[in-house]
Amino acid sequence: MTQFAEFGSREKDGWSDPGIVEAYVRHFAPITDAVGTGMARRFVQPTDTVLDLCCGQGTLTAQLAATGAAITGMDFSPEMLALARRAAPEAEIVEGDAMAMPFADASFDRVLCNFGMMHIPDQPKALSEIRRVLKPGGGFAMATWVGPAASPAFAAVFGALKTHADFSAAPPQPDLFAFADAGQAKGMLEAAGLEMTGHETLDHAWVIDSPGELFEIFLTATVGAGMLIRSQTSETIQKVADAIAATVAEKHADGDGYTVPVPVALISATPA
Ligand SMILES: C[S@@+](CC[C@H](N)C(=O)[O-])C[C@H]1O[C@@H](n2cnc3c(N)ncnc32)[C@H](O)[C@@H]1O
User: Which domains does the chain have, with CATH numbers?
Assistant: First the structure.
């Protein structure tokens, strides 16, 4: 399929794992759902036909359905789709791959992709599919994490991994944070026939009770980072956990707990 085929098949397995899905919904969704709420408010009109691409647990799908828009949620994980069907019974929920969508050309006024793009092995293909299913004059919006250079949460986790972990077993993958860079995002969108209309950073944060929680979140609620951590020796895993906890304790104490900023990039585009 692509140079990142092994990464893609690990993503598919990971997002179909009930334990990862449950932990994701508990730890990440409070932030990603808040981002989705803002996206829905800004980019969707009640008269729109909308695709929630990589809809996951379906919270955004449900919010979009509540606006009166005709909404389709699509994801490739049966585990996630079961949650989405429960969350958004009035939406059409479809199983499919973002790189080969089961929709006719020009089907949607809006395509939203909330924290999905970085999990797709062939992003140029997914972007050209988005372009294909958008109506002329339609709009695309996506959210993604800002990278470690400007994200305290990702700096703590990736800093510890880079210092202590052995990455040799990790399959090659696309740059997780490419779209957070406005220049790279613009280039990738343009190559797919989409013109970038907005690129901004939103402030979000994890509010946690103990310094050790950030490591637990990445161990249990992510696919790629969790797999990388579990592939290490128990001694290395302990070093990574300790390093992340030390950073959180040193830099992010806030009253009785800890607040770790995790900024988000919001990108919008229209067919060129
Ligand atoms: C990080 S979760 C985001 C879920 C939800 N949109 C949110 O904002 O919390 C990524 C989702 O993308 C889905 N996904 C990843 N790669 C996909 C692909 N190639 N095609 C369809 N869905 C995919 C996963 O199954 C998962 O539900």
Answer: 5-271 (3.40.50.150)
